């Protein structure tokens, strides 16, 4: 690991010229999460959707001494119970060789500051249940698991079928 005192970490909003690097990081993250086969997006898809006018998601780049070492993708959510916006963190990734220097903490803190400045009531994300280093880190900053909630997803044929009024296969 690098010495934290010798590295200048900066965070900035991503721009369309970052799309290829973000895509490369997305692929690295998927490999780490044992889900590389699930990435069907291309770098062009990332550029077209993440940086489209009125795109719902935003991205941040994390740099060490000017070199991209990670990213975050997030979007605003809404809590009816709080009557406030929130931020949902879709991805947070730091390259393995740059972990342990505070870059992930800085990236997450940047998002927390954006949430507070925007009057948001919460910052939320999901983590794989086997990712102990991430879980330990999140607990160390005061984040709590929402064990009573189960995430559901409609995708692909199930999404299309439901949208068209077809019954799900048993």
Taking the sheet with the most strands, its summary is:
5 strands, mixed
Distance between the termini: 50 Å
Overall body shape: globular
Spatial strand order of the main sheet: 1-2-3-4-5
The tally of strands reads 5
Order of helices and strands: EHHEEEHEHH
Mean pLDDT: 93
Q: How many alpha or pi helices?
A: 5
Q: Which strand-content bin applies to the residues?
A: 15-25%
Description:
This protein is an alpha+beta fold and 170 residues long. The chain is 32% helix and 24% strand. The chain is built from 5 helices and 5 strands, in the order βααβββαβαα. It has helices at residues 19-32, 43-50, 103-117, 132-140, 156-163; strands spanning 9-13, 57-64, 67-79, 84-94, 122-125. The protein has a 5-stranded mixed sheet, with helices on both faces. A hairpin with a 2-residue loop joins β2 and β3. The radius of gyration is 17 Å and the shape is globular. The mean pLDDT is 93.
């Amino acid at each position: 690991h690098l010495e934290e005192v010798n590295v200048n970490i900066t965070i900035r909003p991503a721009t369309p010229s970052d799309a290829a690097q973000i895509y490369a990081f997305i692929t690295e993250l998927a490999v780490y999460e044992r889900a590389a086969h699930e990435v069907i997006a291309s770098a062009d898809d990332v550029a077209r959707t993440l940086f489209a006018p009125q795109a719902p998601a935003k991205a941040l780049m994390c740099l060490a001494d000017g070199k991209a070492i990670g990213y975050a993708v997030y979007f605003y959510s809404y809590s009816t119970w709080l009557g406030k916006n929130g931020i949902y963190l879709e991805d947070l990734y730091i390259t393995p060789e740059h972990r342990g220097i505070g870059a992930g903490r800085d990236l997450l803190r940047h998002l927390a500051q954006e949430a507070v400045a925007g009057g948001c009531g919460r910052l939320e994300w999901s983590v794989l249940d086997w990712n102990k280093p991430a879980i330990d880190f999140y607990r160390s900053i005061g984040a709590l698991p929402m064990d009573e909630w189960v995430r559901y997803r409609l995708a692909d044929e199930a999404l299309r079928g439901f949208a068209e009024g077809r019954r799900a296969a048993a």
